[in-house]
Design a protein that fits this description.
Helix content is about 40%, strand content about 15%. With about 375 residues, it is an alpha/beta fold. The chain has 2 domains: about 240 residues, Aspartate Aminotransferase, domain 2 (3-Layer(aba) Sandwich); about 100 residues, Aspartate Aminotransferase, domain 1. The relative contact order is 0.17. Belongs to the threonine aldolase family.
Length: about 375
């Protein structure tokens, strides 16, 4: 039982087959091959518009390259205070932008809000030339809390950003899970709501190593090819990245796999609820954050059950846990089977039974 991350999942067999097929022949280098052209065409169809597409192999590169296109070295990139792009990318956006500053904005359930952004921008410490200039806002989709921005929320944030001249980026490492959860079109969740650049994640959803910078604003496309090359992220054999993306995009496989992951997270959440265990955040995509009694946590870890212990300042008061509880971050992937969820829930039941058995017969229950 390993629910630490969707990164532990294997590559989908369709991806491996596509890699084998593209390996069988020769092709033009540096993204000038027919498979890369196919991916560009598929993404234009999925988003219902012309897009700029730049393939890379890591989400960090995708985020950092996109944000560097949007932000001058003296700019500020605003993100949720617990966003992955702010905390877990070792300063890559700052590095690739040649010094732009990441600024954290708190928000409940892992989300920033239009009102929160408006209030931050209204503060008096953005005075030039002594302060950084707000230049971009980035939204994690799904968020670090496993929650999902709806198109209306995105549009409201984008309107505030647009009024102040900020560009809007979306970190879509789990974009597929978000689209599957809400049931809207990719276009509605991105450019129609005001998003100008998307880091489209494939790796967590069946690829071996494939991500895409998808640009909806024509001016952002200019010179990103050079920025990618200068940053060391242009593959000479780019067809091997493209083959992975094409395999997932064809026939809607990317959404099918995301639905599978989300369904197992929903199954897990229902099982936890049936056992009287609370979740720290609404379960909307493929992540579940469960409040576990410390004794249950210790028993699960003793059995080798895999998950991360989490902490967050964005938990709504009515979802807060007790002093003797830990938060377990549980992530489902397309490869997570129902039996694995049931085994995890059974392990929780066993941990509870073990705790009861450890009490002496005369020990009060409360």
């Amino acid at each position: 039982m390993n629910l630490t991350s969707d990164n532990i999942a294997p590559a989908h067999h369709s991806v491996l087959s596509a890699l084998g097929a593209v390996n069988a022949g020769s092709s033009a280098p540096y993204g000038k091959d027919e498979v890369t052209a196919q991916v560009e065409e598929l993404l234009a169809g999925i988003f219902e518009c012309e897009v700029g597409v730049f393939l890379v192999t890591t989400g960090t590169a995708s985020n950092a390259l996109a944000l560097a296109q949007m932000t001058p070295p003296w700019g500020a990139i605003i993100a949720h205070s617990e966003a992955h792009v702010l905390h877990d990318e070792c300063g890559a956006p700052e590095f690739f932008s040649n010094g732009a500053k990441m600024v954290g904005l708190p928000g409940v359930d892992g989300k920033i809000t239009a009102d929160g952004l408006r209030a931050l921008l209204a503060r008096d410490y953005w005075t030039p030339p002594t302060h950084v200039t707000p230049s971009a806002v980035t939204l994690s989709q799904a968020t670090e809390a496993g929650t999902v921005y709806r198109p209306g929320e995105i549009a409201a944030i984008a309107e505030v950003a647009r009024d102040r001249g900020l560009r809007v980026h979306m970190d879509g490492a789990r974009f597929a899970n978000a689209v599957a959860a809400v049931g809207v079109s990719p276009a509605e969740m991105t450019w129609r709501a005001g998003v100008e650049a998307l880091s489209f994640g494939f790796t967590k959803n069946g690829a071996m190593a494939a991500e895409a910078v998808v640009l909806f604003a024509p001016d952002l496309i200019r010179n990103l090819a050079e920025r990618r090359k200068r940053g060391g992220h242009l593959w000479s054999k780019g067809r091997f990245i493209a083959a992975q993306a094409a395999a997932l995009l064809e026939d809607g496989l990317w959404l099918k796999l995301a639905h599978q992951a989300n369904a197992q997270a929903a199954r897990l959440a229902l099982g936890l609820e049936a056992r009287g265990l609370k979740t720290a955040f609404p379960v909307e995509a493929n992540e579940v954050f469960a409040h576990l009694p410390a004794a249950t946590h210790e028993a699960l870890k003793a059995q080798g059950v895999g998950y991360y212990v989490w902490s967050s300042d964005s938990i709504a008061p009515h979802r807060a846990g007790g002093a003797d509880e830990v938060i377990a971050r549980l992530i489902c992937s397309f490869a997570t089977e129902p039996q694995e969820i049931d085994a995890f829930l059974a392990a929780i039941d066993g941990a509870g039974a073990q705790k009861k058995a450890s009490r002496s017969p005369g020990t009060p229950l409360f």
